[in-house]
Structures
1.
Amino acid sequence: MTRNIFSVINQREHCDQFVNIFTFPDCIEELRFWQENILSLKPSELFNIYSDFHVFTDASDTGAGGFVSDSAYIFHKMWLNHEKVRSSTWREIKAIQICLKSCNKVLRNSTITVHTDNQNARIFSSGFWNNSDLVQSSELKMLLSHLRSTVIDSRAKTTVSKYADGFKRFLAWAQKYPEIDSILPASELYVSLYLQHLMQTLNHFSLVETAFYSIKWAHKLANLVDPCDSDLVRSIVESSKRILNRPVQKKEPIDATTIKTLFNRFCNPRTLRDLRLLSICTVSYAGFLRYSELCSIKANNLSFKPEYLEIFISSSKTDCYSKGKSVVIKKKNTLLSRSNFVRLHKSR
């Protein structure tokens, strides 16, 4: 809610330049919003005065970094290929672990506060994970660090990201009300009120359902009493399905006529782009492939047989254990056959 204010500030040529904000109505609306709502926000201390050091870390898809406040200690790291495919939660926790190890000399025997923008790290400091400090052996600590990633990997990467974002929204909502003093575990009353808030502000029950399972997921990871097990909370989710339900508007299916139309238009492909378009459309249609499955196909995944084309799909939405599967497409003795187009595209 400060995007327009920030945009006005960036329009200045120097830091002392006067800006007439009355010419920017969006900026005025933001200032009015903060004037009316800032007192209702839950206050939070920027720093814990009882900590000897404050450690700041962050992680992205490509790397991680961190530093110790008021010191010259910093670290940065680029993820290896097998680390890039791990969940965002794993990368955030790994960044904290690497930062603490890198700065061990200055942090040893000190009280530390870790600052991270990932809410899953908060989950791993609650409930079951409060006992982490009891682990003293270096070997057991290594097992503990692997245990966190193990429980995260019990769900698909996309599911973890979805639930983490859902729990983060619940946390942001709760922080607006000072009376809510506990998020993990959360109270059945405040979870119910949050779901009621979503029902009154959103237009589809799937968002309420996502919030429900996100809160449930966070409590399960922390091994805490789950407020979503309450019959009352469940009844709110069921009610949202009845109140916010909309008729399903299915997309028009692609049939053989559509594929023939593409062939008639690009029957003599002059460019590799046209040939690629025909290959993509025909293979996805004949093999019932999702786009995510199609775009991950590599040349060594194709196997041309006398009677058919075999495509190995290394990962799929329905392949939760990543075992891989093969799709077979029958070959026809025509120039416009699917396998012929794929073979021609591969040769070019």
2.
Amino acid sequence: PEQPDLDWWNPEVREEFERILRFWFDRGVAGFRIDVANALVKDRELRDNPPATENDDPWSRRRGFTPLYNANRPEVHEIYREWRALADGYDPPRVLVGEAWVWDFARWAAFWGTEADELNMAFNFQLLDAPFEADALREVVERTQAALPPGAWPALTGSNHDVRRFTTRWCHGNEALARCALLMLFTLRGTPFLYYGDELALADGHVPPDRVLDCAEPSRDPGRTPMPWTAEGGWTDPWLPLTDTSRNVEEERADTASTLHFTRDLIALRRGRPELQAGDYEELPAPSGAWAWRRGENVTIALNLGRVAVDIAGIEGTIELATERDREDEKVTGHLHLAPAEGAVVVT
């Protein structure tokens, strides 16, 4: 079996997709995630892509070709302008979120359109693909903010069905670092998207060779194992094996010190703080291994992703939420001390 592609040069295909969008929008669907949003339109002549070079992004080098003719064609923007006009015609407007694996920041930012007339959001995969280190993450955010047109808003995530779970890939199973990742996603400028299990600090599962279903190499199945609802798993015959249920929803729900409760408190904090919903991002000075930023006027976020404790100067206020929960309500006067794999939100 193969996944068919469509001829987006055919106007009847475009008309049919607009009919499909209206069908679901009329029924109240809030919006769509558009898979491989940068690759709807192919080169009209179906020319072969050129070989990848050292100047290409890591994904192109791994695949061996530059996606010149099978993706990132300029005509795709015509489609999104039409879809955005259709989505904006509803009350409330519907939302279009793009999965666009585009590594050039300017080309990626073009999917918002020249006048915010294309996608509402596109996943910031440059952040997802960066190592979980302060300098690397900070650079991605700086370049993202510089590339986005006025008013544009990125979609933020650390895990998905293609790259596996961040607790394994970024944090190597360290729950304290996983909480730092959650804190980052919910306090940067953008909309956080959680992959199922992120809220538990769930790591990749074990899939023996005889149970692998995914055709990719290496297999993505370890990041697609079932959600452990209970200590017994909560499944009768899952599509992939569930061999470790030590981190499960039922027990984390009952434990107020769990990462699940931490995630819920992060969501509540974001909802209650307008600065975290719409405030500007401003980077702050921080020692090596640490990263600090301000949202709006009154909310400061700091993470220590290094291996030694740090003191971050110039921070005043009260810790409203911390990865180490017993530090909440602590007063900060002039500097914030953070152990390795620790983060905090300080408000004034």
